[in-house]
Amino acid sequence: MTNRLTTADIVLLVVLTAFTIGSFFTRDLLASQGFTVVVELRNVAVYKGNLNEERQVTVRGGFGDVRISIHNGCVAVVHAECPNKVCVRTGWRNLAGESIICVPNRLVIRILGDMPNVVRGITG
Amino acid sequence: MKKIGILITVVLLCSCERPSLRRIVRQTTAMDTYLSVTVYDENIGTEQGNAIIDSVFAEVGRIEQLMTDYADTSDVGRVNLAAGKESVSVSQELVHLLTLANHYSASSNGSFDVTVGPIVRAWDFLGVEHEVPTRSRIRLLRRLVDYRNIVLDSARVFLRQRGMRLDLGGIAKGYAVDRSVALLKRFGVRRAIVDLGGNLGVWWEGTHALDSTAAEILIRHPRKEGTFFGSFRVGTAGISTSGDYQRYFIKDGVRYHHIIDPATGYPARDVVSVTIVAEDATAADALSTMVFVLGREKGMEFIERTPGVEGLIVWEEGDSLAYRLSSGLQGKFSRSHD
Fold first, then answer.
1. Alpha-helical segments (H) within B213-263
2. What pLDDT, on a 0 to 100 scale, did the predictor assign at position B8?
3. B11, exposed or middle or buried, with CB in 10 Å at 0-12, 13-18, 19+?
4. Is A118 on the interface with B (CB under 8 A)?
5. Residue A120: its chain B contacts at CB < 8 A?
């Protein structure tokens, strides 16, 4: 029996090492698939669905109807009758951990999923 | 045996994960936008972290009550009400912020001006029905816009002309972010991000602005909602973006956005987005507005000659977007695929 590495061993080592390094970079990317959108009205979940499904959701808040669009892997409040409309101006959100809040309607939209193992801020 | 040992090592390496980040994140709304605070500190427990974040929320609420121009009882509201009549006793914080704002105004020849309030009100970007103000009305209101007519002493503010209005929309959110970061530090938090409507304060102990890579900053795409234009990494810093896509309405095919050029009374037109990285969020907030109004040439010149400030300017070129980075961001910015 010999301890020398064969060509096959070296190929295996290269493949495994490449896989290991690659997995560090792709894990966050893969984690972004299959996020869940949860809509909560007055702390009660009124809708739960996949962020990748095309969907229009309307909920009745204290200030009238709030229309939520789930489109192209993003979610946004596209119409609300609340006074300040911060929820509408928050725009489209698509990352795990992000949320859209409408204080007057006591509405919270959360994106659930594995948060990427990075420290991230969004500007703009 | 040696061969098996190497293979086992590789397999073990494959099964390893980077240690996951412990984070406490909470969101609310404040200052007419969203507020998110994330604490990354393994020494801060959930209960303690939540209590600290509650204090940050309260601090931002306190600043909003001082600085809003939508309440006659706030410091700014009282100053506006007394414009042209009398000076008003205000908090030292407001005097400090107005002194800073006047410094930015003077250094940009008035491209940044917190007395733009009457014109911003006329445009009413927060309203439901959007109308373009008439030219004669804009011309009239422009006479009320001049930062040199703010009279400051250590605890009082006076606006010289009746009808003048302060609007701190281009600086107060950055200030609130800086106050939040200061509070987090006082509580012993070593790492955190405060996000007030895209005005970011990154606090990462032992790091400094672009010399460090603690946090990834994603910049929203100015024309494709839900996507990002690019990213760069920073350490402790303030970051802000001013864009024509944040608050706007479209009338007769023309986009009218909320970043008003004080010299014309109309939305500044040369660029679509400006991102500023500075040592604090107050500077980043004010300078992103100022550089937007200055435009791509003068704006980039301003960034380049200001120590501790870097930036990205994006403008439209036909159907696509072009951009320019300041020298300190060269090689650090990663453009996303459209």
1. none
2. 56
3. exposed
4. yes
5. 215-218
Most confident of the ranges A35-44, A54-63, B54-63: B54-63
Beta strand spans in A1-124 (E)? 36-41, 44-50, 55-61, 64-71, 74-79, 99-102, 107-112, 120-123
Residue owning tokens 């993003």? A74
Beta-bridged to residue B255, according to DSSP, are B250
pLDDT at A22 over 80: no
Q: Which residues of A touch B11 (CB under 8 A)?
A: 16
Rounded-to-integer distance, Cα B15 and Cα B84, Å? 71
- As a whole number of angstroms, the longest Cα–Cα distance in chain B is 91
pTM of the model: 0.84
For the record, the structure tokens of B60 come out as 């931002």
Are A90 and B34 a contacting pair at CB < 8 A? yes
The number of beta carbons lying within 10 Å of the beta carbon of residue A98 is 21
How far apart CA B154 and CA A9 sit, in angstroms, is 76
Q: How many residues does chain B have?
A: 338
Dig out the tokens for A40 from the structure. Answer: 């909560």
B29 vs A9, A24, A103: nearest CB: A103
Which string of DSSP letters, residue by residue, matches A93-114? B-STT-EEEETTTTEEEEEESP
* Tens-digit pLDDT profile for residues A58-94: 999 999 999 999 988 889 999 998 877 888 888 888 8
- The C-alpha of B186 sits at a distance from chain A's nearest C-alpha, in angstroms, of 22
Span B227-285, pLDDT tens digits: 889 999 999 999 999 999 888 888 899 999 999 999 999 999 999 999 999 999 999 99
**Mean pLDDT along residues B161-173:** 97
Q: Average pLDDT for residues B78-86, to the nearest whole number?
A: 98
Instruction: Determine, for residues B275 and A123 on separate chains, whether the beta-carbon distance falls below 8 Å.
Output: yes
Of B126, B107, B104, the residue nearest B240 (C-alpha): B104
List chain B residues with CB under 8 Å of A91. 220, 225-226
Tell me if B20 and A74 make a contact (CB, 8 A cut-off). no
